[in-house]
Amino acid sequence: MLTVSVKWQKKVFEGIEIDPTLPPYVFKAQLYDLTGVPPERQKIMVKGGLLKDDADWSAIGVKDGQKLMMMGTADEIVKAPEKAIVFAEDLPEEEQATHLGYSAGLVNLGNTCYMNSTVQCLKSVPELKSALSNYALTGRSNDVDQTSHMLTVATRELFGDLDRSVNAVSPTQFWMTLRKKFPQFSQLQNGMHMQQDAEECWTQLLYTLSQSLKAPASSEDSDAVKALFGVNLRSRVHCQESGEESSETESVYSLKCHISHEVNHLHEGLKHGLKGELEKTSPALGRTALYLKESLIDSLPSYLTVQFVRFFWKRETNQKAKILRKVDYPLELDIFDLCSEDLRKKLEAPRQKLRDEEGKKLGLQPKSSSKDSDVKMTDAEASSNESGESSTVTQQEGASSEKGTLHMTGIYDLVSVLTHKGRSADSGHYVAWVKQESGKWIQYDDSHPSLQREEDITKLSGGGDWHMAYIIMYKARLVSM
Amino acid sequence: MAPGPDPNSVGDGAKRDEATTKVPSKDPKKKDDKKEEDLSEEDLQLKQNLELYVERVQDPNPELQKAALESMRQEIRASTSSMTSVPKPLKFLRPHYGTLKEFHKNMAESDLKKLLADILSVLALTMSAEGERESLGYRLTGSEGDIGSWGHEYVRNLAGEIAEEYTVRQGEESSIEDLMDLVQQIVAFHMKHNAETEAVDLLMDVEDLDLLLEHVDRTNFRRTCNYLTSAAKYLPGPDDMLVLDIAYMIYIKFEEYPNALQIALFLDNMQYVKQVFTSCTDLLRKKQFCYMISRHGITFELDPEMVENDVDREMLQDIVNNTKLSEGYLTLARDIEVMEAKTPEDIYKAHLLDGRASSGPSADSARQNLAATFVNAFVNAGFGQDKLMTVPSDSTSGSAGNWLFKNKEHGKTSAAASLGMILLWDVDAGLTHLDKYFHTNDNPIIAGALLGVGIVNCGIKNDCDPALALLGEYIDKEDSSVRIGAIMGLGIAYAGSQNDQIKSSLSPILNDAKAPLDVIAFAALSLGMIYVGSCNEEVAQSIIFALMDRSEAELGEALTRFLPLGLGLLYLGKQESVEATAEVSKTFNEKIRKYCDMTLLSCAYAGTGNVLKVQDLLAQCGEHLEKGDNHQGPAVLGLAMVAMSEELGLDMAIRSLERVLQYGEQNVRRAVPLALGLLCISNPKVTVMDTLSRLSHDTDSEVAMSAIISLGLIGAGTNNARIAGMLRNLSSYYYKDASLLFCVRIAQGLVHMGKGLLTLSPFHSERLLLSPTALAGIVTLLHACLDMKSIILGKYHYVLYFLVLAMQPRMMLTVDENLKPISVPVRVGQAVDVVGQAGRPKTITGFQTHSTPVLLAAGERAELATDKYIPLSPILEGFIILKENPDYREE
Description:
Chain A is of the alpha+beta class. Helices cover 31% and strands 28% of the residues of chain A. In chain A, strand 1 (2-8) and strand 2 form a beta hairpin. Residues 1-34, 356-361 and 394-399 of chain B have low confidence and may be disordered. Chain B contains 43 helices and eleven strands. In chain B, the strands form four sheets. Chain B has a four-stranded mixed sheet. Chain B has a three-stranded antiparallel sheet with strand order 7-6-9, with no helix packed on it. A two-stranded antiparallel sheet of chain B has the order 1-4. Classes of the chains: A alpha+beta, B mainly alpha.
């Protein structure tokens, strides 16, 4: 009989007897009583390895009073979870893309950053995307020429590719058709394609799209692009000499922000841009006279585009020079005071509503004095408004939801910024900064998208050699009534 | 160069005082600038006297001669104690030096001639032309009087001339006996007068350090030994060994055993270690020795000769075996109140980054989870608890299981092994936790469990050899991941043990034609670790054969680099011993030949500071080679390995690397950050930090990756806020690049390793000793980092666990005579170099007073702030046993 002590975890069991004539399994059974570890899971360290069930005690050479060490637990054996864990690395590419929360960048094909950034900015308009996807391959109406059709298709394909891909997309097809449609973009310099003005690209592209996306049949809401971007201006043309006055309306796709010495803020620039002088023949005077033109906004678009008029033709240097002046722009733009009287009236109610809602969000009670009758309604609607608010994301959704119709408020939120860095329009570098649906800002520097902070976006206002906003796009804040 | 107190100085001082009180304006210093005509009356008098003496010396009357010589001697002796200005008698005698010399030549042999020779010898101090050694020449022909009486400066000059003369005579192979008599005198003089350093210098010059033993006494042996040990770093071999031998003998002579042990360990001389044990009779002090040996990380068996009593021996062996390390570490952790487990998120501190990383991805990324596994393992290393792996599995599937399965395939290996890291040094609890993973049928998990067992046992020895018993079973399993787990586990658990049983089971794998390359690579590496610095022929042979058997294609694989590395580790720090093997390596396939050559060279001279080797390696780095040559990486690492031992060489290496970075090829540049990381491991120098920070944004992603890992290495275990901030910014900068982000995460884990209680520095005992196993662990990781993409970012990320070999608590824990922790006040401050300083200079500066246990940062030193206790080791690091001071009186 040998007496040994066995150390197990932190415990030591003294004086365990071993009968050398019996196999070690018996010893293990003894330990099972003491520790509760089943013999098959006991690992007992002896000289030269583990103690085998059928080993011979004499061969192992256990001495009297020796300390043995046992390892083993009665714990449950770990099992793999039934549902296998899916790792991001295993996902197909498309899902990885959604996973990132933003889409891919565009490869620079040689001075095509003006085009890349334009495409990225426009792509951030979901309505445009859906309009494009409705554009049937064969649905080319006769009044659209072949090249426009091809460009439209190419745009649609490119948008699709961007959504699907994780890695940067090469917009070769799009570029080809763009150059076919607008040969001015094919200018060469030293055998390279020249840098172009992004604003020109933007305008031309939108114009083409508006032409081809015009629904041929239905008369109202015929022009999808116009509905999205078009701004109706009502202008009063006034001649001071003759006192003549006339009014005209026009539709533009973007507002201009003129930059002069007094302009420090977008709002001032816009006001400036809506006033103009023009010379035309005065029927009363019978000669050309100076007319003052004052425009006001008559109808609001879903997406308000503002172009900073930063470039002007400098005769001395024979190039488009750039105004580096810093012009601040807000993340939230209110253009109420640029609107015409009629429009203002229309906007009043939705704006009140919006204020109330925001007040409620901040924990303030809507002022009952403002609209006695409305108190109940707002309360009743409050609960349902949660869905209404979320539905303001896209117009279509909002329209299809049954919670009344959505109304413009004249308040806009910044969604994308196209910046330029450099000293002239035909050189330097264009970059797009786009707000994602998740609320994150992404900088699309050709093929490199990168996350940005919102507070840095307003710092692109110029005044140095850093990227400065050239075209910015606001999205209307809607409210359901 | 202030002369020490001198027997002459008293009389001299008195005399000068007299002079200055008489004529205050006649300051001797100012005096020298003036022309001769401006001589004061007194000086004029002196000058005339001396001229008279010179004349009289040449007088035929011996009586007059003698009187003149005596007077002259008197004048000179009274003034030669200081050399801030030329003593006046010497100055006035200058014009007569030639005359006297001439006269001396013609003099008949007599006492007077000797007397004149003495004087001439002193005069030669200022007169003799460089290299003539006239002072020495006249000294040897002069009377054999007390040389000290001529003043300190004279002796010093004489010592210099002796050294020159010695080299000349060595060249001529003529006798040096007469010189040695003089040396005896000079050494005795120096040792008596606080000029130990000069005595040592002289003896080193004349290659007779043994003389020192006769002259040291209780008052000066410490300074002597201190100088010897620090001088050893700058001496070429084998002189350095000789110097340390002497230091060892002096320490033994004065029963300063802890220091003697330190040197014995430095020399890696087990005979000396044994002698320390046999010479010392105090059991308590032996315990302290055991703590020192355990910190060094070598395997050491006590035998009855060293400790007679069986019970005592067992207790001491327990200390050597590090079985109490976990307990001490946890005591420290509780005292500092950092027991609370930390999650990887606590380390990433994503909330401090603005908006970018805030919205985490919805799906689990295997790469990021793997990074979190490592971070969790490093941060909670040794604490025995964490929030991912050890959480009790009470719910249905258990969260531990959950986290494990959030890692993919080979990632599960690292996850299971991380348990070993969390329960580091606590063998009992570790094995209990790991046990359940042995029973799955998921091979990567079993591999991880095996590796975990190895990690838990790292640096801990146990009579039952649980690691060997458990892992031995799996070495020859079918699945190669399981085999690697077992082999690597053995390598970690038995590093430095030279265990024959493991050798006999691992060696066959090396030469097994059927074994896959990765298994062979890890087997070679593990053998290298187990036999680190042993120069074991047999193992070397096996690895060499394994290397020769590799096909051309296999030699190109990333993992093949572990074969030469394993070979190199065998010779770690063994200098010339590597030469035979290096010769053999020249016959290898050219693909691996140079790589092997560089690895062997750098390992063999690791930690020696050998300047010639540094130059060799630098020359290699400077070459611009064709693509495909990969030996420059190890050359750059080698540079750091060789130069890392002492501060001067280290700074020079950092500067050279800066050049290499600018002019080197890309493959050299990639290794530079790693070399910097090694040089400053766990020692975040600001300059290096800045360099690495710059490189972490390098356009070459591999340079950036190594720089990031190195940032982690230099900050390892320091919680350095600056590095933590840099890494946090890098994590947002590289948030899209999964590989770089992985590196950033690993680095973050390293910086917060052990919540700041650990260090990776292989140096300890005031930077004197280099733990071979620790260095082996770091070097292995660095070699793996040379090809980051295929090893760490591939499926062999668990090589990161090799760092465990270098992980040690950077603590100072005081224990009483029963080895129970006690708290005493200590001062912790920046260490000051006191080598060669007279008196009892302050050893630390800018200190703060804490109570033990305390953390020691790189370059810090502690000293007891109370007289109540006496520490049993002068080097206050790790475990320190305190004895009550019998002379202590409560105030």
